[in-house]
Amino acid sequence: MSDVVVVGGGIVGTVCAGELLARGLSVTVIERDEPGAGTSAGSAGYLSDGEIFPLAQPGVPARILPMLADPQGPLVVRPAYLPRMIGWGTRFLLASRSRRFRAGIRAMSSLNRVANDMLFAFAKRAGAERYLVRDGCLHVAYERATLEHAEALVATLEANGIAARIVDASSARAMEPNLSASVLGGVFYPNAARCTDPFEFGRALAGAFRAGGGTVVRAAAQALVQRAPEQWIVRTSEGEIEAPRVLVAAGVWSRELVQPLGYRVPLEAARGYHLMLPEPGVQLARTLLFEETHFCATPMDRGLRLAGTVEFAGVDAAPDYRRSEMLLGLAARYLPGIRGDGATRWMGSRPSFPDSLPALGAAPRHQNLYFAFGHEKLGLTQSAVTATCVADVILGRKPPLDLTPFSLGRF
Ligand SMILES: Cc1cc2nc3c(=O)[nH]c(=O)nc-3n(C[C@H](O)[C@H](O)[C@H](O)COP(=O)(O)OP(=O)(O)OC[C@H]3O[C@@H](n4cnc5c(N)ncnc54)[C@H](O)[C@@H]3O)c2cc1C
Fold this sequence. Notes:
binds flavin-adenine dinucleotide, alpha/beta, about 30% helix
């Protein structure tokens, strides 16, 4: 029997499992698919320290309605799914009040300030550092109204310990010569980084976990049962697995495992799409984020990846790959030379709480049950800081940051 069972072997579960193993515990990961792959495999690979702003912001609820009417907009809700969004949507509205928003920024920054350093250190220990490059990220805009807020944005970032600086049009084009003449400038994040192949990165970390003595059981977890304070049973498609402690890290699917234990888990699939361009026709020196359309272009080992946008349709709904395909036309506004020959499409589900903060640490009402899920758009970025915090809690040590804002008990 292992000291800890980790349910879910996506990027968060894999990094948590690796950290627990490195701290001397025996660890079993239960994963129904390929360990280390999961949603993050198709992500934009942007290690984004500057994404400290929860989606729920003052003024956003009013801006969402016109967005929903635009099929090429950054956010869509499938009409048939709207009634299922009422509970989550109400909590989203509550989270968009300015006091909650400001608290969210502080909480998010506490993770992001240390996230990239921790992920680089973790990847190095696992021999997977070749997939990470720290060359910053440039957020670019072509509308003057977008840039009007740049100074206030940079001030907020700096006040929260995140480095950022405003870049004018000519500096932006000096950094990225393929940018369109209509780009008016943007904001540069010098400590941001990128992953050059999130799928191979996850696989390399899972390989290092196995090579270090970790166990992976290929099975679907069906239920968590506590028989005694230090006796957890995970019922799986392949039989029961027992351990004194369980860490739930099953992304958006954590809800169905944790809710039956009596917790409120308002977790939704904020689905996103990518378009992978093997011959993009443009070369970028770093990740670009397009401010008006809210998605990224990340140079990767196998080409350029356009990834982002949000669709609420339920986790099991069929993908609408028009949302992948539209990314090429939208990106051409910033990168006129971009080409889509041989492009491939992908959809994945970000695990999203209404306040954009993950659930981290000890379960409020069960001993020896721990959570690491709900990282929304930042699961890759925050995987190692999550692992450090959760390992500290499991081992009875003080984590490097205050985990109170991340308790599932907030719902
Ligand atoms: C388009 C898009 C772009 C993104 N870009 C970025 C980015 O640039 N940077 C960033 O940091 N993040 C990004 N994200 C977000 C990031 O991908 C997620 O936050 C992250 O993948 C969440 O990781 P996870 O391990 O919690 O969940 P997942 O990656 O979803 O992994 C969960 C795992 O648990 C397994 N599982 C679930 N239920 C069970 C069960 N019952 N039994 C056994 N196994 C189970 C699943 O098979 C899966 O492997 C992006 C997401 C999308 C969709």
